[in-house]
Amino acid sequence: MAPKAVLFDFDGVLVDSENHHIAGWQRALGTLGWNVTEPAAARAAVLDDHEFVSRTFADRDMPMADLNAWIARKQAITRMLLRDAPRLYPGVRELVNRLSGKVRMAVVTTTWRENVEAALEGAGLLDRFETIVAKEDVEKLKPDPEPYQVALRRLRLRTAAVALEDSPSGLASAHAAGLRAIAVGHRLPPGEWSVSAPYIAGFEPLDAILELLEI
Question: Which of 56, 58, 80, 196 has the fewest CB atoms in 10 Å of its CB?
Fold first, then answer.
């Protein structure tokens, strides 16, 4: 049965945002005169913002400042970068445009809504997505099924949707919500993380992706 909706993860599926987060922390903490190297800032790609800035201050034997203020400063810089220079993965724009009008689309992510809206607005794709389920919309993040359950409720669907994910926690979340899921690698090769779902290296060639989606 063809899906009625395609549900996209954000970071790692639609947008390559790692460098935006790295630059956001480098610029924010640079106001203290700190030279935060790219490898050091790259920890922000795998850590929660609060944990990252806490560790950074601790590593420099600095008293804990208002960490929420630093997170807000970094977020503002990151949103600006996402809006001004969204880095869509190859094939994303073409896939979204081909799906538009054929199926409903949503974003289901563990990042903040403002980040998603900034990047999609900058790319001119925001109006293609019917809803965004973001970090602030749920109590439990992936791998819990709640993010996908919220998306299905908003779309008034049961399980007639397919999820596109780039992580084991995302795939687990989709499966736990009763959804078919596809592992999207982009620069990440298949491996243990992707064994629970069909794997694609990216969104090209487009016709093959549409066939896999059964659209």
Answer: 58
CATH class of 5-16+87-213: alpha beta
C-alpha–C-alpha distance, residues 46 and 64, integer Å = 21
| Strand 131-133 versus strand 5-8 pairing type | unpaired
Residue 124: what residue type? G
Question: How does pLDDT run across 149-166, given as a tens digit for each residue?
Answer: 999 999 999 999 999 999
The rounded distance, in Å, linking the Cα atoms of 45 and 17 is 9
State how beta strands 5-8 and 104-108 pair: parallel
Judged by DSSP in three states, 179 sits in: coil
The domain limits of the chain are 5-16+87-213, 18-84
Beta sheet of 180-184, edge-to-edge order: 131-133, 104-108, 5-8, 161-165, 180-184, 199-200
The tens digit of pLDDT for each residue in 26-36 reads 999 888 888 88
